[in-house]
Specification:
CATH topology of the largest domain: Rossmann fold
Strand content: 15-25%
CATH architecture of the largest domain: 3-Layer(aba) Sandwich
Structural class: alpha/beta
Helix content: 25-40%
Number of domains: 2
Number of strands: 18
Distance between the termini: 41 Å
Number of helices: 12
Strand order of the largest sheet: 9-8-7-10-13-17-18
Shape: globular
Largest sheet: 7 strands, mixed
CATH class of the largest domain: Alpha Beta
Length: about 375
Amino acid sequence: MNSLKRLLALGTLFVSSLHAFSTTDDSGFCFVADAISYNNGLLQVLNQQKLPAEEEWIVVQTPQEMVEIIRSLKVRGAPMIGISACFSLAQLASQGASIDEIEEAAILLKSSRPTAVNLANNVDTVLEAMRNGSDPSIDVVEAAKQIFYEDIELCNAIGHAGAKLVQPNERILTCCNTGSLATAGIGTAIGVIKIAHRQGKNIHVYACETRPLLQGGRLTAWEMEKNKIPYTLICDNMAACLMKAGKIDRVLVGADRIATNGDFANKIGTYSLAVLAYHHNIPFHVVAPYTTIDPNCPSGDAIVIEQRAAKEVRGASGSFGSVIWSPVNAPTFNPAFDVTPAELVTSYIFDKGNVEAVLIPYMVQ
């Protein structure tokens, strides 16, 4: 069921963005986006492991359950991970949990995935609001609400800022999934694509499948079809031949953490695309909200890269079940992210506009 239909089933509707909705009354708050729903303490997330074959919503009852959901990538995308963790804390606070219990849950949630900076920053924002407030059941929910609203606004601003760069008839390459499944709003890199499409620029998207978990093949392709955006799905190792053939005009990617010198971590394979784009003189843009900049991270060398399970490389799993195509105990190397150096980046598309690496430190002052 899509966001609008889900909210209509809940009652009064207030449109707050292109993709996310909220309603409020004396009994509490309700927030619905494409990948998350919070209705006065009832927290549900869209199981992204089941997409595109099945749209299954998971009822989340505890922070421990949310940690498992984040680690298993049922919820993913740097902004959405942070938002989901905050609503898990809001749910706990609404149940009457003490400050100590909420802080303990916050530590657990922050440990679920190490690379995306939004998770730790969002949770810390909620904790600060709780410590400075008088009633956790109100203060934590209010802080989560503000983070949700801010992400919607940031995505819309990013989309319009990036669309200014996109020329008519461009062919845009992207990887992983950076749309409304990864954010509360229209997305980051995919948000730019959506706005450019709505502006009638006749764009065509090449979506890398994004091994090993196929977020591009499963999720980005799903979003392209939902939004009726022309696209072609490719294997990751096909990007180079497309660039050499002159069939790619621009590359748009997201980010999970951006260092102050412009180095950034994103889904594994992003570095390869940056090198290829640089070699073929194709504009390569990092698209993210200012909240993805880590002011305490001086360079990519300081970014902790999450290492994931061997089974993700040995085979695949999803709505179809599981399959193993390698020897059962094949040794693997499976970093979830790689780090791309700033010198390979044409520009960074933030909510405040299109900037070069030298201006990044000023974005968080």
